[in-house]
Amino acid sequence: MDMPDKIRQLAELIRNSAGTVFFGGAGVSTESGIPDFRSESGLYSAQRVYGHSPEELLSHAVFEHEPALFFRYYKENLIYTDAKPNAAHIALARFERQGLLQAIITQNIDGLHQAAGSRNVLELHGSNLRHYCVRCNAKYPLEYIMDSANCDGGGIPICAKCGGLAVPLRGNCIVRPDVVLYGENLDDAVVHAAIHAIAGAELLIVGGTSLAVYPAAGLLQYFRGGTLVLINKTATPYDSAAQLVIRGAIGEVMAQTGAILT
Ligand code: NAD
Asked: Is 65 known to be catalytic?
């Protein structure tokens, strides 16, 4: 089947489904200029620049023991304040408005689905738009941690409410991202909502994810529905389980699918 046929088939599946859920990852945002982890041009260059893999740099252990390194990597590589929703985010938001999509489950932390207008978004790995003090739980926006006036000499953001830079206890007052780091547990409520959505879906569209990050990728095992669609530039471990595999840029695929469904 050629690409136009596959896109027509995807549109038909979406149109005829009683319940559709989208499960996505970093590849959904590459067309917004945010690199993924596993593509060659992606964040794996971290090894060359910082001497560690992204998994190590974004681990609970590095956050705990080398917070200056953690925040340097995080601020230099995970924050894209100019990124805008791309055609994939925009099409998915429209599907929801049209009643064609029930939920988005994302591994991304960039908030671009909500920026595109999607409402039912389950963020498995949290969001880099939200930050909080590990000691008093005070909430802070992204701008706070990016302002060097709120950070110590190592670039570590310090809570102004429970300590501030002048207080000796400030080591306990780090403002951290509301993001699930490697080595940390996913939020129970979000996982349960994601399982509920996947288990109740008739059509599951998985896109822009290598399906290599667990436990997120393991959620697919809860799918009991009829049709699994995979949209990814490269092969994934679930390709053989899918009824439709589309190898392509997800923004282009979703835009063309959306054009059929208008
Ligand atoms: P990944 O980096 O492991 O895999 C991304 C996949 O998307 C790859 O298989 C790649 O071939 C594919 N891809 C890239 N661009 C694409 C496009 N335009 N169209 C279709 N496919 C495309 O990503 P992952 O599986 O999400 O796992 C990485 C982890 O890193 C996740 O936990 C995620 O939270 C995090 N992460 C998030 C962001 C973000 O928030 N935007 C960015 C990088 C990493």
From this structure: no
